[in-house]
Amino acid sequence: MSNKQFFIYLIVMAGSTYLIRVIPFVAIKNKIENRFIRSFLYYIPYAVLTAMTLPAALYATGSVISAVVGLIVAVILAYRNKSLTIVAVFACLAVYITEMILSFL
Q: DSSP letters along 4-34, please?
C-alpha cells in the first residue's frame, strides 16, 4: 500500500468517525424530553457492550461447553453482587475445571 493510498484511507476513516460523534451534538441542541427516547439512549451502551462481549466469551476457550459454564458462573456471581475480581476468578476456575473434565472424556 502506498503512502498516498494510506492517507486517503486515514482521512476517510477519521472523517467518518468524527461525523458520527459530531452529528448528534449538532442535530440535538435541546434536552431530550421524550421518556421513551431517553430510556432507549440510556440502555444503548449496555446493549452494545453485550453484543460485543457475548460472542467473544463463547469462543474464547477451547470448547463452547466450557465457555458456557464459565459464563453461567460469572452471571450468577455478578447477579449476587460479587466483586469483579471474584467473578473473574471463579469464572476462570469454572472454565479450567470444565476443560480438565472434558479432556478426560
A: HHHHHHHHHHHHHHHHHHHHHHHH--SPP--
Burial pattern 40-61, b for ≥16 Cβ within 10 A else e, equals eeeeeeeeeeeeeeeeebeeeb
C-alpha distance from residue 91 to each of 36, 37, 40 (Å): 36, 35, 31
Residue range 38-63, pLDDT digits in tens: 899 899 999 999 999 899 989 988 89
Residues in the chain: 105
Q: Can you give the residue ranges of every domain in the chain?
A: 1-30
Overall pTM > 0.85:
no
Report H helices in the chain: 3-27, 35-58, 64-79, 84-104
